[in-house]
Amino acid sequence: MHPDNGTTQTGQDMVTALRASAPYIHAHHGRTFVIMFGGEAAADPGFADLIYDIALLKSLGVRVVLVHGARPQIDAALATAGVESVLSGGVRVTDSPALTCVKQAVGTLRMDIEALLSTGLASTPMGGARLRVAGGNLVTAKPLGVVNGVDHRHTGEVRRVDVDAIRAHLDRDHIVLLSPVGYSPTGETFNLWAEEVATATAAALQADKLIMLHAGPEMHEHAAHPPAQLSPTEAQALLESGDGLNDEERARLQCAVQACRQGVTRAHLVRFEADGALLRELYSRDGAGTLVAADTYDIIRQATVEDAGGLLNLIAPLEAAGILVPRSREQLELEIDNYSVMVRDGLITACCALIPYPDEQVGELASVAVHADYRKQGRAERLMQAVERRARAMGLARLFVLTTRTPHWFVERGFSTADIADLPLTRQQMYNYQRNSTVLIKTL
Question: What does 352-418 look like in DSSP terms, one character per residue?
């Protein structure tokens, strides 16, 4: 027996991580996720670990639809067969010899994936999993046809996804595995773009998440302001700006936007090369990739009495440091209607109070605070913008703030230095000369 009875730092870290992931385990149980990865992921040395992580999702109650690509495997098969790889506008032209190579590459890769999902050795993370994989003719395709004068032959696009059959497999506790091929009612086989298969499937199922695994840096690192969350509108703006996106990144980000606009709640873009990134993205508050959310991940709203405890936890360190004036819980609850909060998955990450003086058409900003883990990410500015909109709606013409430590931050956002005499009379009478706070005022 270890002298510490097992309470090592590593063991405690594991306990902490499990406890932190519990809300996400509950939230994701019974949800439908469509997960897409390209052939590049299958060629990566860490691919087996990725498949084991996907199997863990299944064990945690997630309904999983996997869509795999096979681009590098098809390229290799074409080269081995001596068949020229022909692209037109970045899209593969699939003639009959090329289609034979597509079938060979896709079929081989699919069997490799099924083999990994069938692993059951006790010495692997798959021990005891006993997963069942289903597939088949679940995607109906049609020919892409002639584009810019080029006949793409056996290259196709998704015509229909057999939603009922996929749901039936999921209801039987199967993982559904879709390959980048589709079949026509006339019995033809078409080479499809895996990203399109994944997006069309997620939209048809109204999946809770579309997860696209990619190589290279995280998608949001290309944005001017690097939040790990983008709205569909912000993602579209990033696409139109062309900020350093390569063709594959652009295509997958466009798929994420399209999926959200077609009813998928959230689309995640995650690096497959980062070990455990998929699990961190789904089972931690801050994730590991880029989220395109049709809903709002960071919610700004008016505070309620139930938020009092969270607000006290947020502002207590700043009160202890003398940055904010101490407030009791009773005082905070009496003034709760003045507070706006930013919330992420139940955690208050930022707050700001707006205390109105309607007779003077002026309001005071107070208790501007951001959680230590979420600073320097633009939260205070976004929250203040929301509070300014609220002030205008209340008919206020000016805002003022009293600060001892951050006057420059407010000056950079349109505030100007003022005198105590510029404050409302009642606020002048409460001014604490011992704190000697700087007075700043902004005209709305």
Answer: EEEEEEGGGTEEEEEEEEE-GGGTTSSHHHHHHHHHHHHHHHTT--EEEEEESS-HHHHHTTT-EEE
Structure tokens, 79: 């080269």
Amino acid at 60: L
pLDDT digits (tens, 9 = 90+) for 96-143: 999 999 999 999 999 999 999 988 665 666 667 778 999 999 999 999
Q: Is 65 helix (H, G, I), strand (E, B) or coil?
A: strand
- Tell me, yes or no, if the two domains 23-297 and 299-443 fold the same way: no
Per-residue pLDDT tens for 180-217?
Answer: 999 999 999 999 999 999 999 999 999 999 999 998 77
Buried residues in 40-74 as b, exposed as e (16+ CB within 10 A): bbbebeebebbbbbbbbbbebebbbbbbbbbbbbb
Integer-rounded Cα Rg, in Å, for the chain is 27
Task: Give CA separation, 422 vs 411, 413, 419, 431, in Å.
Answer: 17, 19, 5, 12
Show the DSSP H helices in 172-225 as ranges.
194-205
Contact 357, 351 (CB under 8 A): no
No. of H helices and E strands in the chain? Answer: 15, 23
The model's pTM is: 0.70
At the fourth CATH level, the homologous superfamily of domain 299-443 is: Gcn5-related N-acetyltransferase (GNAT) (3.40.630.30)
230/219 Cα distance (integer angstroms): 10
DSSP code, position 11 = H
Topology (CATH level 3) of domain 23-297 = Carbamate kinase (3.40.1160)
What does the alpha-carbon distance between residue 379 and residue 340 come to, in Å, rounded to a whole number?
A: 12
Measured distance CA(170)–CA(372) in Å, rounded: 42
